[in-house]
Design goal:
The structure is a single chain. The chain has 119 residues and is α+β, with helices and mostly antiparallel strands. It has one domain: 2-Layer Sandwich (Tetrahydropterin Synthase, Chain A). β3 and β4 form a beta hairpin. α1 packs across α2. The chain starts with a strand and ends with a strand. The model has no long low-confidence stretch (mean pLDDT 95).
Length: 119
């Protein structure tokens, strides 16, 4: 099995309306996002997926979130947790590049706190 990974970043604000604690107040993060593709067959050039293709799609989805208030994005149901953001990014990449062997997306809110979505 082969796995590749690419990374992108974006900055955004949010608050967790269904959470009681300091994160229910508006605050921001510099998010780091990792997207993974996995498969057993290599294509042209001995590659699973061209890094540039996966990175381009990841950056495209992240660009739509950059410098926004994530609570304004309907997909997050007004509570944009890292888990919901990871699924949103996964679904966005999959919609932009059907057939891509996308296997997971990780969203880091900090260097030590991350959520992962894999179907």
């Amino acid at each position: 099995m082969y796995t590749i990974r690419v990374e992108a970043d974006f900055a955004a604000a949010h608050f967790l309306s269904e959470y009681h604690g300091k994160c229910e107040r508006l605050h921001g993060h510099n998010y780091r996002v990792r997207a993974y593709a996995t498969g057993s067959e290599l294509g042209e050039g001995g590659m699973l997926v061209d890094f540039g293709v996966l990175k381009g799609r990841l950056r495209e989805v992240c660009a739509a979130l950059d410098h926004t208030n994530l609570n304004d994005v309907a997909a997050f149901a007004a509570s944009p947790s890292a888990e919901r953001i990871a699924k949103h990014i996964f679904d966005g990449i999959a919609a932009l590049e059907p057939g891509l062997p996308l296997s997971a997306v990780e969203v880091f809110e900090t260097d030590t706190s991350m959520a992962r979505y894999e179907p």
